């Protein structure tokens, strides 16, 4: 997993690079806007961590440059949690932000969550290489963030309309297939940086809506199953 780190503070940058490499990431660390653009002209990355204040510009400009080239997940590092900083970052296409000072475990958790949401944490086998994930008759087109239902008799695919949060929920189940997910784990996956708060009651509604859209018999679900007293599971 190749990670791009833009941080002009030597102490923070070196510490982050060391910690990230211990977690198994291949890290490219640069300190300026100019070096960031040069790095992206010759490399591709799975996720980017961008500091906002730079000696020759700012992380917002770098984020805009990156997003124009390809849709790579971006996490901003900001010295302030002021609303204007957060909103500007999100409008630039950022997926999350972390305020300095932060604990390294918090950043690691945010990275993993953003990668799971974007589908970057998936393996490279079979249909996954083509950007199509399959669950029984459900097909997730990760490149287009669309979902279709395959008619096994005709082999025709009918697209279904999912909201952004329903799609995120489906990806959360897929990325953790074979594992029972508690409601608290699902709520963490569904946390929305755009400000759409997801609580326990709302989660129940989203699971029901998702089942209504993808299950042949929502009253007797065979894709997203309930594990009484524990949570839910999408079996392998």
From TrEMBL:
SUPFAM superfamilies: C-terminal effector domain of the bipartite response regulators (SSF46894), CheY-like (SSF52172). One of its GO terms (biological process) is regulation of DNA-templated transcription. Keywords: DNA-binding, Phosphoprotein, Transcription, Transcription regulation. Residues 2-115 form the Response regulatory domain. Residues 130-236 bind DNA. Residues 130-236 form the OmpR/PhoB-type domain. It comes from the Bacteria. Coiled coil: none annotated. The modification 4-aspartylphosphate is found at residue 51. It holds the Pfam family Response_reg. May play the central regulatory role in sporulation. It may be an element of the effector pathway responsible for the activation of sporulation genes in response to nutritional stress. Spo0A may act in concert with spo0H (a sigma factor) to control the expression of some genes that are critical to the sporulation process. This is Stage 0 sporulation protein A homolog. It comes from Butyrivibrio proteoclasticus.
């Amino acid at each position: 997993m190749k990670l791009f780190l833009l941080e002009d503070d030597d102490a923070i940058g070196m510490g982050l690079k060391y910690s990230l490499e211990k977690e198994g990431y291949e890290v490219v660390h640069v300190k300026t806007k100019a070096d960031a653009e040069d790095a992206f002209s010759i490399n591709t990355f799975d996720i980017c961590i961008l500091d906002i204040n730079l000696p020759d510009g700012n992380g917002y400009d770098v984020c805009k440059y990156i997003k124009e080239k390809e849709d790579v997940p971006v996490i901003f590092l900001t010295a302030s949690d002021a609303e204007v900083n957060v909103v500007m970052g999100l409008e630039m296409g950022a997926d999350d932000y972390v305020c300095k000072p932060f604990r390294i475990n918090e950043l690691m958790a945010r990275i993993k969550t953003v990668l799971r949401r974007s589908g970057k944490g998936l393996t490279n086998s079979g249909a996954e290489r083509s950007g199509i994930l399959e669950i029984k008759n459900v097909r997730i087109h990760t490149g287009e963030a669309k979902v279709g239902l395959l008619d096994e008799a005709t082999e025709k695919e009918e697209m279904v309309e999912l909201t952004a949060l329903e799609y995120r929920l489906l990806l959360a189940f897929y990325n953790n297939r074979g594992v029972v997910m508690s409601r608290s784990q699902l709520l963490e996956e569904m946390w929305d940086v755009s400000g759409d708060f997801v609580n326990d009651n709302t989660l129940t509604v989203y699971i029901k809506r998702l089942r209504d859209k993808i299950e042949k018999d929502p009253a007797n679900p065979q894709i997203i199953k309930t594990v009484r007293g524990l949570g839910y599971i999408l079996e392998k």
